[in-house]
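Chains adopt folds. We examine one example:
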Amino acid sequence: MAPDTERTVSMSLSGMIHEGILGMPANPRGLVIFAHGSGSSRHSPRNHFVARQLREVGLATLLFDLLSEAEDRVYEKRFDIDLLAERLAQASAWAHADPELAGLPQGYFGASTGAAAALNAAARLPGMAQAVVSRGGRPDLSGESLPLVEAPTLLIVGGADTQVIELNRWAKAQMRATCELAIVPGATHLFEEPGTLFQAAQLAADWFTRWLIPG
């Protein structure tokens, strides 16, 4: 297989077809499934930037739409963490059953509300996700699920995103699993400042390499 190929995949989630973008490096050693934030989609340029960095260290990536087009028009569904987590869990099961992906250890990467969905899904499926990374996330929205998460978790927050830093510190205190908080100096919530998204992507790559790739 040529290095770093991307293709569109279709998954049946909750009886509806959801489109995804599967990125495959040569000889992938793990799979990272992305959970986007509210109002975003599989086309998120920030998540695609991170995905490219992950593929450079040998990790396959899957970006998909958590909600259907009709569901996304209902504002409340964008913040229905249980629903979003269920979709992520179903996508995880789809990948686990796919012949090309079945043998790969899985991790979850969540941004904004997607971070809460990733942690909820990890709590629902102990052992399925072997690592979780949150970027600018709202892990506090996972609430009672936080102590149930077993996967090692990295919380990445911008240094200028002061309110979200405190919410992440609170979430970290609720967790029993290995959990670290990484603050990227000068970054705001969307990591739009030069070089900050690259720093976040490198932190994620290091975390997934540490916990997903044997040896």
Q: What stands out?
A: The first strand starts at residue 5 and ends at 13. The chain has a mean pLDDT of 91. DSSP finds six helices and eight strands in the chain. Helices lie at 45-56, 69-72, 81-97, 113-124, 162-174, 196-212.
